[in-house]
TrEMBL record, chain A:
<feature type="region of interest" description="Disordered">
    <location>
        <begin position="221"/>
        <end position="255"/>
    </location>
</feature>
<feature type="compositionally biased region" description="Low complexity">
    <location>
        <begin position="227"/>
        <end position="239"/>
    </location>
</feature>
<keyword id="KW-0547">Nucleotide-binding</keyword>
<dbReference type="GO" id="GO:0005525">
    <property type="term" value="F:GTP binding"/>
</dbReference>
<dbReference type="InterPro" id="IPR027417">
    <property type="entry name" value="P-loop_NTPase"/>
</dbReference>
<dbReference type="InterPro" id="IPR001806">
    <property type="entry name" value="Small_GTPase"/>
</dbReference>
<protein>
    <submittedName>
        <fullName>Ras-domain-containing protein</fullName>
    </submittedName>
</protein>
<dbReference type="InterPro" id="IPR005225">
    <property type="entry name" value="Small_GTP-bd"/>
</dbReference>
<feature type="compositionally biased region" description="Polar residues">
    <location>
        <begin position="240"/>
        <end position="255"/>
    </location>
</feature>
Automatic annotation (TrEMBL), chain B:
<dbReference type="Pfam" id="PF19038">
    <property type="entry name" value="Fuz_longin_3"/>
</dbReference>
<keyword id="KW-0653">Protein transport</keyword>
<dbReference type="InterPro" id="IPR004353">
    <property type="entry name" value="Mon1"/>
</dbReference>
<protein>
    <recommendedName>
        <fullName>Vacuolar fusion protein MON1</fullName>
    </recommendedName>
</protein>
<dbReference type="GO" id="GO:0035658">
    <property type="term" value="C:Mon1-Ccz1 complex"/>
</dbReference>
<comment type="similarity">
    <text>Belongs to the MON1/SAND family.</text>
</comment>
<dbReference type="GO" id="GO:0032585">
    <property type="term" value="C:multivesicular body membrane"/>
</dbReference>
<comment type="function">
    <text>Required for multiple vacuole delivery pathways including the cytoplasm to vacuole transport (Cvt), autophagy, pexophagy and endocytosis.</text>
</comment>
<keyword id="KW-0813">Transport</keyword>
Length: 255, 378
């Protein structure tokens, strides 16, 4: 029966993982999607955070089970555990930090090699609010920037200072990222967790692209021999704590 | 940094461990701790005993091991002696920094239990204990903030207070607390300094900081299993109203020293030695200000140092009494408990002794509510 995955409220569970360099805004993107909030000084994620959020499409309701992973080097070896059974991935980079796109590309490569072959991958260029105004008039006095600075500990404050000064320079052109995404077969969005721009679209477009039939089929094929697979039927009810956020459905995909 | 390393290696060569330097200003002390391959240095002018500073550095070391295991450290520094550890600790600074030197449970090397009706504590315990064997399940703990309501563990594995502090310090860091649930690798160094465990942390009633923590000894992919048990526990606690009752109890668990009705008593720390737990009233005047609180805690620490003969004192003292212009403080250690009490400096010593006896009687009477006495095993 299909209602193993389509639980009591007929929603279909979709596992989604967020990947990307530390501090590009993964947790902030999720927070915007799940609670429609933004925190200016979000503390780094430890391990991975687990959240859920519903996404309503015209003909169906998806229930995202989201893994928001920590981007630090020391957590890298844990990543396969999160993406192994994922049906969707959002790979995030920071539009003001070129190196973060390189990191995103290497995540995409890893996903394409090792994740579920039907996984839907979206590339998100976050913090677009920092470049929206200053897009055309980039300042001319560019001192030695910290972009190729190897020591992360010093790169971060520099980046923050840049952000604070309000003229964050775009380091990744939209066209360039778009071209890469098209070539690699990814969905692509520029987003801002701060203003909310592009966030709902991001999760809605992923939802539309998820091969639901495939999920249902694999569920029917016996969830038992796919531990942690799409079904997780036994966990569908009872997780009141995790669902607390859903009491405000106004923030769900409103389409 | 290089200077510190040079000084320490000279002393290490001498076979003589550098412990501390007292600066010429007479107030500042620099304390060193070597935990190969790391060196810890603390500069302090609070006037706490050296043993206390070292104890805090030991805790910092445990917290660092929770992020990078001893084995990883050893391997890294074998390969590259000049490795910048900051790279591996990235993103962990906020909770490393949150280890609080004024935490009384930490100072007394014990755990803080939540004051709650024993019947309610038992109900929670019944819900936490796995009914059937759950592979790799180690600890199941319900906490309010950093105060333990109850803790279920396998018969073979008790939990070291040091590990519990590290665990609670990590799970109360804001990024974990803000998330509805987290799954994180953590090394509990007293359990095993060389390997990671995984903790599932669910923020169940954020308003009362109620958090359910499940520690699994297995790998990261034990997630679904652990989450499954978390949800079963939650359902049990929700269905019979236990969680609501616990939330109410947690919000009302702090007590005032005035509730004891003991003349002149301002504050105390009572440690139940058998259960390795402390209880202490909330901070009130004249200890609302951080400065006054720090002064008092430093006094407690000095007395703690003296009654445990931590600084090479000749023998342990059973009783230590200090009176300053601000307050009278007395420490008293017996077989079942350790007690630190503070009274107005105007009262005679006999009144202080009388108050100590009264607090001890009160704690004995209230024991079942104050302390977690029979943590369930499975
Ligand atoms: N201006 C701006 N700042 C953002 C945005 N998203 C995240 N940030 C900030 O970037 C920092 C890192 O965000 P976080 O979500 O923790 O990144 P993560 O490590 O990828 O999860 C935080 O200080 C956020 O407030 C955004 O869209 N715009
Ligand atoms: Mg994060």
């Amino acid at each position: 029966m299909a209602d193993a995955a389509a639980s009591a409220d007929k929603s279909i569970q979709v596992k989604l993982v967020l990947l990307g360099e530390a501090a590009v805004g993964k947790s902030s993107v999720v927070l915007r999607f799940v609670s429609n909030e933004f925190q200016a000084n979000k503390e780094p994620t430890i391990g991975a955070a687990f959240l859920t959020q519903k996404c309503r499409l015209e003909d169906r309701v998806l229930r995202y089970e989201i893994w928001d992973t920590a981007g630090q080097e020391r957590f890298h070896s844990l990543a396969p555990m999160y993406y192994r059974n994922a049906q969707a991935a959002v790979v995030v980079y920071d539009v003001t930090k070129a190196a973060s796109l390189d990191k995103a590309k290497s995540w995409v490569k890893e996903l394409q090699r090792q994740a579920n072959p039907h996984i839907v991958i979206a590339l998100a260029g976050n913090k677009v609010d920092l470049v929206n105004n200053a897009a055309a008039s980039s300042s001319s006095t560019t001192e030695e920037t910290s972009e190729d600075e190897p020591d992360d500990a010093t790169a971060t404050p520099a980046e923050l200072a840049q952000a604070a000064s309000g003229d964050g320079l775009r380091a990744v052109a939209r066209d360039e990222a778009q071209a890469y995404a098209t070539e690699a077969g990814l969905l692509f969005f520029e987003t801002s967790a701060k203003t909310g721009e592009g966030i709902v679209e991001l999760f809605t477009e992923i939802a539309k692209k998820i091969p639901i039939e495939h999920i249902l089929a694999s569920t029917r094929g016996g969830g038992a021999n796919r531990p942690g697979g799409a079904a997780s039927g036994s966990n569908a009810q009872g997780n009141v704590n995790l669902d607390a956020n859903n009491q405000t459905p106004k923030n769900a995909c409103n389409c | 940094m290089g200077v510190v390393q040079a000084i320490m290696s000279v002393f290490a060569d001498d076979g003589d461990k550098l412990r501390c330097i007292n600066c010429a200003d007479g107030r500042t002390r620099i304390t060193f701790l070597a935990r190969s391959p790391l060196y810890y240095v603390c500069v302090s002018s609070w006037g706490e005993p050296e043993s206390v500073t070292r104890f805090h550095l030991e805790y910092l070391h445990l917290q660092i091991l929770s992020v990078v295991t001893a084995l990883q450290l050893q391997r890294i520094f074998e390969k590259r002696t000049n490795f910048d550890l900051r790279r591996l600790l990235e993103g962990a600074y906020t909770y490393l920094a949150s280890l609080h030197p004024l935490d009384l449970a930490m100072t007394t090397a014990s755990l803080g239990a939540l004051r709650i009706e024993p019947s309610l504590r038992n109900k929670v315990a019944d819900a936490l204990v796995p009914t059937a064997k759950i592979k790799d399940m180690l600890y199941v703990v319900l906490v309010a903030g950093t105060r333990v309501i109850t803790l279920a563990r396998p018969r073979k594995h008790s939990i070291h207070p040091g590990d519990l502090h590290v665990l609670l310090n990590t799970v109360t860091s804001s990024s974990v607390r803000d998330a509805p649930a987290s799954w994180l690798p953590i090394c509990l160094p007293k359990f095993n300094p060389n390997g990671f465990l995984h903790a599932y942390v669910a923020s169940v009633r954020p308003a009362a900081e109620l958090t359910l923590v499940l520690v699994s000894g297995g790998g990261g992919d034990g997630f679904e299993r652990v989450r499954g048990w978390c949800e079963t526990v939650m359902k049990k606690l929700e269905d019979d109203g236990t969680l609501d009752a616990v939330e109410r109890a947690a919000k009302a668990s702090e007590y005032s020293v005035a509730d004891l009705g003991i003349q002149g008593l301002r504050h105390f720390v009572y440690k139940n030695r058998a259960h390795v737990q402390v209880t202490t009233p909330r901070w009130e005047e004249p200890y609302e200000s951080l400065g006054a609180r720090r002064r008092l805690i430093t006094m407690y620490q000095r007395i703690h140092d003296a009654i445990h003969a931590k600084s090479g004192q000749e023998g342990q003292l059973k009783l230590q009494y200090i009176r300053t212009e601000h307050e009278s403080v007395m420490g008293w250690i017996t077989q079942p408990f350790e007690l630190y009490i503070t009274l107005s400096p105007r009262l005679p010593k006999s009144a202080v002794v009388g108050a100590a006896n009264a607090v001890a009687r009160w704690a004995k009477r209230e024991e079942a509510r104050l302390f977690l006495r029979d943590a369930p095993v499975f």
